[in-house]
Amino acid sequence: MELTVWTYEGPPHVGAMRVANSMRDVHFVLHAPQGDTYADLLFTMIERNKKRPPVTYTTFQARDLSGDTAEIFKTAARDAVARFKPQALLVGASCTAELIQDDPGGLAKTLGLNVPVVPLEMPSYQKKENWGAAETFYRLVRAFAGGAGKPETAPEQASCNILGPTSLGFRNRDDIVEVVRLVESLGVRVNTVAPLGASPADLARIPQAHFNIVLYPEIADTSARWLKRQFGQEMVTTIPIGVGATRDFVAEVAKVAGVEVPQELLESGAERLSWYSASIDSNYLTGKRVFVFGDATHAISAARIASEELGFKVCGLGTYSREFARDVREAAAKYGVEPLISDNHLDVEDAIIAAQPELVLGTQMERHAAKRLRLPCAVISSPVHVQDFPARYSPQMGHEGANVIFDSWVHPLMMGLEEHLLQMFRGDFEFHDDAGSSHLSHGGPAAGHQPDARDEQAAVAAETPAPDVAAATSTAANDDQPSWTSDAERELRKIPFFVRGKARRNTETYATENGLNPITIETLYDAKAHFGR
Amino acid sequence: MTTVFDASTACTDTAAKPGRDVLKQRGQHEVFCGLTSIMWLHRKMQDAFFLIVGSRTCAHLMQSAAGVMIFAEPRFATAIIDERDLAGMADMNDELDKVVTRLLARRPEIKLLVLVGSCPSEVIKLDLPRAASRLNGEHSPQCRVMAYSGSGIETTFTQGEDNFLAALVPEMPAEAADAPVSLVVVGALGDVVEDQMMRVFDGLGVGPVRFLPSRSSTTLPPIGPNTRFILAQPWVGACAQALERRGAKRISAPFPLGEEGSTAWYRAIADSFGVPEAKFDAITAPGRERARRAVARYKPVLEGKSVFLFPDSQLEPSLARFLSREMDTSIIEIGTPYLNRDVVGPELAMMPDTVRVSEGQDVERQIDRVHTDNPDLIICGMGLGNPFEAEGRSTKWSIEFVFTPLQGYEQAGDLAELIARPLMRRELLKVGS
């Protein structure tokens, strides 16, 4: 039993719904109690789809449990096929229906439906949403592409499938446009994109392509590996998020497809991140501490961009995708940080506090945490908010994706000259810590906010390793912590709030290491000289 | 207007009003489960913490339905049952104890911990009332522990609040035998509404008046034979029965929506407390006048329009009555998840026989009826709103009626505005479907 307030992923059947909702002519009959229909609003409200997801729920109630829930399932399946006339019917159970063991797959078989039925096993008590999506996609691909042996592929032009984009995926809608454009500019034909926008008939055509682009391994990796074994289709696994990764992606696609990279793709015409980042105005971004957390794909990509393309310092990197923990560990080693593999948002919040970042790149959960800690934040990964399905074209991948990323990460930060002015005129009555940055309305102070709350909260949290051991260690922790003289404390408050936490931590570290207690103004400046900015 | 009946699955029932048929069809219910009530209960009772014992689906429901609105750390959480619990490798009661101990260490300000049963906890027959009594022995008096069910197999949306309040009734202190006659208003209301009601009660000389749920778990109203209670929300039928079992007397009335509903509601209380007619008129006249004026502004928008209500909170009959009688709209269908005739019978009796009433749901066939009836406005849940909007239809999210203070004279205009807004908006927009 695990205590949770927010969860990064839903149950596996929600992953199955995401695949069903991505596709055309697929319908999903889900054996589930009344109430599980809440999942519809993920699609109709958060993603703002115009149609209801293609899901029929059996919505059984307590009084049905003593009767025949299996019969309710059979009626729902029969009615759904008659009403929606899908090319394929997915059947499965949610967490409660799993417990009553009605076996939707077996029941559907007895109905003699005139459509192919793909039964799903979704172990709700051990697996989660992305696994459910990957498994559903794999079952569909096997069912529809698996029949024949290796088909004839057109030899005259290299062709590929783009696998992985789904409904509710972070900016998947726009990423497809960028990636198709990139691939086609190499002279490679796109055979099919799946699951988003594909029909079961399109899945049947997957083996006709020369190779597969795994755009989102959390969802497409299982299928792509199977396709490689079955049909010998190579996998392109570079994720084209960021300037460098897009360049690598183009090179990998060209190599697998056996084509030359055209000259105009080598010149980065459409891409502005490189110049904006090199421009003198971006100097202030140098060494900004950034904490990165998300699904593995977006977190690893974000860390690379932060480090190589914006000149930030990656001070934390983690993921909730346990299936891809190895990849994140490798990436974390590159930046010299401890990888954080956790699906407990409280652990992530603690890690953010400890890392003292100046920018948080995360999911909706980290946006909540950053807001509480008064840290700038940009969202880079699912799970997301309705605001992260913007009306405008806003990809993360390819050249335009890099441009979007530059804007959306830099925008929440204090501008360079503004930072300097704050340092000079911190006593100004309308230009002070609590006024926040002038270009952001949400940077204003929260009601009842104490000037140094973030700092204090961080300090308290840093001293309190975990609630259950806090009682045992708090006395010792207090003994170790040097105290501040009131002069030094006043001087510390003259440092702008966005670097004050770091100054406090550095000074305390310096004092502890040098056995200095209490901390004086001298200690503060000695520490500053010792650590630099 | 013709009523669409399906002879094979529809059965009729004439108890609501002689001659009124109730359409019942069994199919997909597109409604929230009772856990969703925690969204407002945890804000209303400020020293309570709601711990759902359930699955990842329950946690995901809470954050999908409520998470987008809540930025502070909420006073609810889910203890997620995992494979180890089900396989019997971990004793689930020990696991629950551990979770509760950790939670209370983290949130020492919590005075009432509420274990909330879910679909999985009920299917595996995890005895939460018993667990609560065990934990209560361990943690009270610092923190009391209780349990109720908010599961989807037992409850629909607002019924979760009903179960919570019904479970609170045994916890309520006994009123002294010689206590003066008191009033309890039952069903969560906005704080501002409670304050306004208190001013009216003071004016009428009715008191002492208490509210359930109370703002704190330590100030539950005392109950006894001298207690009278009135429902402020239509979904608290089980709580009403529990109060009656403790000797309290129910005052029956329409619900305080709109000028007419509010007046009828206050009048039932005034009559029960023997308030003279002249005094009643003097105290309520300014409010009635303001409510009539506020509502009149939106009448041109809603007058003559046809409205179709999907089942959601059980407020549907009261909303329909307000729309029908005070806004002169034509009601096509009143869908409600559960029709408690004892509670909403007076509301239905105030409406024409042509109004179709449906209880429970087969959402696909209900959508078919919308396509046939082509109403001017659809009041429905969040899963259905945008798909209807994309068809060029005007919709109002029903969940807002639960979250917005609407009761009483001062909110009558807000209620009218809330319903009129989608139609006014469609007039404003020169783009879209």
Automatic annotation (TrEMBL), chain A:
The Nitrogenase/oxidoreductase component domain sits at 12-413
Q: Which UniProt keywords apply?
A: 4Fe-4S, ATP-binding, Bacteriochlorophyll biosynthesis, Chlorophyll biosynthesis, Iron, Iron-sulfur, Metal-binding, Nucleotide-binding, Oxidoreductase, Photosynthesis
Query: Recorded E.C. number(s)?
Result: 1.3.7.7
Does this entry carry the keyword ATP-binding? yes
User: What is one Gene Ontology biological process annotated in the Swiss-Prot or TrEMBL record?
Assistant: light-independent bacteriochlorophyll biosynthetic process
Annotated residues for binding of [4Fe-4S] cluster: D36
Reactions catalysed, semicolon-separated, are: chlorophyllide a + oxidized 2[4Fe-4S]-[ferredoxin] + 2 ADP + 2 phosphate = protochlorophyllide a + reduced 2[4Fe-4S]-[ferredoxin] + 2 ATP + 2 H2O
First-level EC class: oxidoreductase
Q: Quick check: keyword Iron in the entry?
A: yes
Active-site positions, per UniProt? D281 (proton donor)
The protein in question is named Light-independent protochlorophyllide reductase subunit B
Organism in which the protein naturally occurs: Hoeflea phototrophica (strain DSM 17068 / NCIMB 14078 / DFL-43)
Q: What is the lineage of its organism?
A: Bacteria, Pseudomonadati, Pseudomonadota, Alphaproteobacteria, Hyphomicrobiales
Automatic annotation (TrEMBL), chain B:
**Which UniProt keywords are given for this protein, alphabetically ordered?**
4Fe-4S, ATP-binding, Bacteriochlorophyll biosynthesis, Chlorophyll biosynthesis, Iron, Iron-sulfur, Metal-binding, Nucleotide-binding, Oxidoreductase, Photosynthesis
Q: Name one GO biological process term.
A: light-independent bacteriochlorophyll biosynthetic process
User: In which residues is [4Fe-4S] cluster bound?
Assistant: C33, C58, C119
What sequence ranges are listed for the domain Nitrogenase/oxidoreductase component? 39-423
Q: In which pathway does it act?
A: Porphyrin-containing compound metabolism; bacteriochlorophyll biosynthesis (light-independent)
Q: Origin, by domain of life? A: Bacteria
Q: How is the cofactor bound?
A: Binds 1 [4Fe-4S] cluster per heterodimer. The cluster is bound at the heterodimer interface by residues from both subunits.
Q: What is its EC number?
A: 1.3.7.7
Which catalytic reaction applies to this protein? chlorophyllide a + oxidized 2[4Fe-4S]-[ferredoxin] + 2 ADP + 2 phosphate = protochlorophyllide a + reduced 2[4Fe-4S]-[ferredoxin] + 2 ATP + 2 H2O
Its assembly, as annotated, is: Protochlorophyllide reductase is composed of three subunits; BchL, BchN and BchB. Forms a heterotetramer of two BchB and two BchN subunits.
Q: PANTHER family annotated for this entry? A: LIGHT-INDEPENDENT PROTOCHLOROPHYLLIDE REDUCTASE SUBUNIT N
Family, according to the entry, reads as follows: Belongs to the BchN/ChlN family.
**What is this protein's function?**
Component of the dark-operative protochlorophyllide reductase (DPOR) that uses Mg-ATP and reduced ferredoxin to reduce ring D of protochlorophyllide (Pchlide) to form chlorophyllide a (Chlide). This reaction is light-independent. The NB-protein (BchN-BchB) is the catalytic component of the complex.
What name has this protein been given in UniProt?
Answer: Light-independent protochlorophyllide reductase subunit N
Identify the species of origin.
Hoeflea phototrophica (strain DSM 17068 / NCIMB 14078 / DFL-43)
Q: What is the lineage of its organism?
A: Bacteria, Pseudomonadati, Pseudomonadota, Alphaproteobacteria, Hyphomicrobiales
| Gene that encodes the chain | bchN
